[in-house]
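User: Let's play a game. I give you a shape written as tokens, and you guess the letters that built it. Ready? Here's round one.
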């Protein structure tokens, strides 16, 4: 099984730019879901979880501002970057007001976009570093890889998704329903299956505590 890559939802109705961005981001190892309208983007978030939203503003059937406002009101905290030709202060202010983490004005430098994407994804882990360390484990945010005492650990996609959640929510309890929703992505995932994955991760040495009736916690000692 291949490693879980960071997933980006790209909302861009300029198909030439979208194709260029998809090629660029895929060459950097990201998994891209491209949609042409705000409505399509909203539907995509119902069926799948993402590590980043990359959103144009002036798009059909719900603009980018309206889309992100709706997602934030629904408590979707996925990091978001606006990429737009709107370069006035009012639009910039609106973008951050509805919950953006960054705002890039078109035309933009592709290398700068990559730098900003990596920075915003790191921010989701509450870290300024690309490597998160807990006891003798290290998680590489950019590569989505887990190491123990410097040795790479081969995980299944579901195990890696759980590890990502724990490192994003270090020292915080995660409800079982949240983990199941993240793993299911529109499909049914049972609590029994989740317990199996948690047991496997514990056998690797990860200190995962069961919070009875609520969920799980991964904490640094």
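Assistant: Ready! My guess for every position:
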């Amino acid at each position: 099984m291949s490693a879980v890559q960071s997933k980006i939802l790209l909302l861009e109705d300029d198909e030439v730019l979208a194709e260029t961005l998809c090629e660029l981001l895929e060459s950097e190892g990201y998994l891209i879901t491209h949609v042409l309208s705000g409505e399509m983007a909203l539907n995509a978030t119902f069926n799948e979880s993402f590590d980043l939203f990359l959103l144009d503003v002036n798009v059909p059937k719900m603009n980018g501002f309206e889309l992100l406002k709706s997602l934030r009101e629904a408590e979707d905290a996925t990091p978001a970057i606006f990429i737009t030709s709107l370069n006035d202060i009012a639009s910039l202010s609106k973008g951050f007001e509805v919950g953006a983490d960054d705002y890039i004005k078109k035309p933009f430098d592709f290398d700068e976009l990559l730098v900003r994407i990596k920075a915003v994804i790191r921010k989701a882990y509450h870290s300024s570093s690309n490597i998160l360390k807990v006891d003798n484990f290290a998680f590489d945010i950019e590569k989505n890889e887990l190491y123990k005492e410097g040795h790479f650990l081969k995980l299944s996609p579901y195990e890696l998704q759980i590890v990502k959640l724990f490192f994003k929510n270090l020292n915080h309890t995660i409800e079982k329903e949240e983990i199941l929703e993240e793993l299911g992505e529109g499909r049914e995932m049972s609590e029994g299956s989740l317990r199996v994955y948690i047991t496997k991760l514990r056998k690797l040495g990860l200190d995962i505590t069961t919070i009875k009736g609520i969920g799980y916690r991964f904490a640094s000692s």
